[in-house]
Design brief:
With 602 residues, this protein is of the alpha+beta class. It contains 22 helices and ten strands. Helix 8 crosses helix 10 and helix 17 crosses helix 20.
Length: 602
């Protein structure tokens, strides 16, 4: 199945065809896909796939020393203030194995699971955004993850031990005119015997100033594939690799991010990852798993913010009682708790899928966790600042100087703002998820509206699709429920039934949108975003129910005794949100807003 690009501009066509050629072509399966298809099967999340005891113990062997090191040997406020991570912190993290958490032991790493890696991201996210970004960019999108997925044995043996022992790595894709549209890439590598000659410049290369080696995406045009992109391993000390400047930002003040220029850099052909012209597949596949780090870090940050907010709301008195008893304040506190719990549930579910099968298709689960969790993290930071008023706006250093608890809410707010942009902005995630959400329907009926196909073939496809959807649509009207555990709390049972009903409504809304808009649906980005947000909300609701059932008696979980009540609130709130998203009649607003924007651009 291929999309009809014949009516697009040349730029749109190049971007679309490049993206389509690099997609994972497997047919979608799994729990998230079942939600969009209106047949929510809760068996994957209920009972919830909890981390095995042995794996948890292995993870604790790393996480306990990590927590101790962060507490006693790092100063996040000083790192933020000075814009530098001390060398002794780099050295200490390297000794702990923090640069090689998932790298197998045979290559010098700790060989820990995806779940333990996500737990580490939660610990880091609740402590210091700069250290989180350092280790995440190194392991999630730098050298380790692409090589673990696609590297040759020679590449793994050469580079993974360096990474595991503290050799920082980076990922270079973005350019001055290239964000989420790699078809516009200018960096190019030309074949020269058994080498490639690389020329170009990369912007916002996180870890680039400290990296000893990096993954660089470059065009490798051929007559057959003029837009082909290839992933190369480039060492920073090679002739022609130049750090042009360091970039500074609103938050993450110690981010080692900069512009990297490549001038006639000679790259051995054996440093290609996966194969020539397969670079975008490397990038997209790496991000599927790498994206989980961001919501995991957000979950850790939210639990820290919840701790700060609970303390403040239970001790600060205004108008004759502690402020947590005022309804407007209590609502914010409940939201922070709910968002932390739901994001953790999303991350743990997707991580469990990876641990069960390293080739598992988690496109939707990871993307939805990233989309939902990073937006929730930003809201939580904003709400915590609002709860603390002036003390939220004040820096930790200033609070400390005048004798108050140095809560770093202001730092968390600044550092968390980038999370809805990193590794796929919210807007791009909406489009990515929408493409996957529509894929089952496109497989069945795209050829019917493809103007490049003969009319007879188009009619045949349309007839077959009509027969299929007659039964499909009827099935989305019937209240058919998947079985649930017999010992499930009645509140959770009710909410999962409600989730199933809303899933059927969502699938019908997707179908209606396709019928009403036809090929023009891809331009209805606000409509698609609402449908995606509804699916994300339903996934968060279902995962929260399953996770609440699993941890309600776990004394180690910070919300164990309140797990059922938290899931109850997540689902009550979520059902209301989904109802608005599906029945908001917002398309007239969309069209008028678009018309206004066009007039402003003109």
């Amino acid at each position: 199945m291929s999309l009809d690009t014949s009516k697009m501009s040349s730029g749109q066509r190049a971007a679309m065809e490049l993206a389509e050629s690099s997609r994972d072509t497997r047919e979608l399966s799994g729990f998230a896909a079942s939600i969009f298809d209106g047949k929510a099967d809760f068996s994957p999340v209920c009972p919830f796939p909890m981390q095995p005891r042995e794996d948890r113990i292995r993870g604790d062997g790393f996480l306990d020393p990590l927590r101790d090191f962060l507490k006693h040997h790092t100063d996040p406020d000083a790192i933020d203030r000075e814009g530098e991570i001390p060398q002794e912190v780099f050295d200490g993290l390297a000794r702990l194995g923090a640069f090689g958490i998932k790298i197998p032991t045979e290559y010098g790493g700790l060989g820990l699971s995806q779940t333990n890696y996500s737990r580490a991201a939660m610990v880091l996210g609740g402590h210091c955004g700069n250290l989180t970004a350092l280790l995440s960019a190194h392991q999630s999108i730098g050298i380790p993850q692409p090589l673990l997925m696609f590297g040759s044995e020679e590449q793994k043996r050469k580079y993974l031990p360096r990474c595991a022992h503290g050799g920082v790595s980076a990922f270079a894709l973005t350019e001055h005119d290239v964000g989420s549209d790699p078809a516009r890439m200018k960096t190019e590598a030309k074949r020269d015997g058994d080498h490639y000659i690389l020329n170009g410049e990369k912007l916002w290369c996180t870890n680039g100033l400290k990296a000893g080696h990096m993954i660089v995406m470059a065009k490798t045009p051929t007559p057959e594939k003029p837009g082909a992109i290839t992933a190369f391993i480039v060492e920073s000390n090679w002739p022609g690799v130049e750090i042009v400047t360091r970039c500074r930002f609103m938050g993450l003040k110690a981010l080692y991010n900069g512009i990297i220029r490549f001038t006639n850099v000679r790259i051995p052909a054996e440093n290609i990852v996966l194969g020539e012209g397969k670079g975008l597949k490397v990038a997209l596949s790496t991000l599927n798993t790498g994206r989980l780090t961001l919501p995991a870090a957000c979950a850790g940050m939210m639990y820290r913010l919840l701790e700060i907010s609970r303390q403040w709301c239970s001790t600060r008195e205004q108008w004759g009682q502690v402020i947590g008893k005022h309804a407007a304040i209590a609502a914010k506190l409940a939201d922070i708790a709910a968002d932390a719990f739901a994001t953790e549930a999303l991350v743990r579910y997707a991580s469990a899928l990876v641990d069960a099968d390293h080739s598992a298709d988690i496109r939707l689960e990871a993307a939805l966790a990233k989309l939902w969790g990073t937006e929730a993290g930003w809201r939580a930071a904003d709400q915590t600042l609002q709860l603390r008023g002036g003390r939220g706006f004040e820096t930790a250093d200033s609070l400390r100087n005048r004798g108050e608890p140095a809560e770093p809410v202001e730092r968390f707010l600044r550092d968390s703002r980038i999370n809805t942009i990193f590794e796929g902005s919210t807007e791009i995630m909406h489009l990515f998820i929408a493409r996957e959400m529509l894929d089952p329907h496109l497989r069945r009926g795209a050829d019917a509206i493809d103007s490049r196909k003969p009319i007879g073939e188009r009619l045949t496809v349309a007839a077959k699709a009509g027969v299929f959807y007659a039964g499909w649509y009827t099935g989305r009207l019937l209240p058919i429920h998947s079985p649930l555990p017999h010992d499930l709390d009645p509140k959770l049972r009710y909410h999962l039934r409600k989730t199933a009903s809303l899933s059927r409504s969502l699938s019908r809304s997707i179908f209606h949108a396709m019928i009403l808009n036809g090929p023009k649906l891809e331009k209805k980005q606000m409509l698609l975003a609402r449908l995606v947000d509804a699916g994300a909300e339903l996934l968060a609701m279902a995962c929260s129910c399953g996770y609440a059932h699993a941890v309600k008696d776990d004394p180690t979980h910070p919300l164990a005794s309140k797990a059922i009540a938290t899931a109850d609130y997540i689902c009550t709130r979520g059902a209301q949100r989904v109802g608005i998203l599906l029945h908001g009649h917002a398309q007239e607003t969309d069209s008028r807003g678009y018309a206004l924007a066009k007039s402003l651009l003109g």
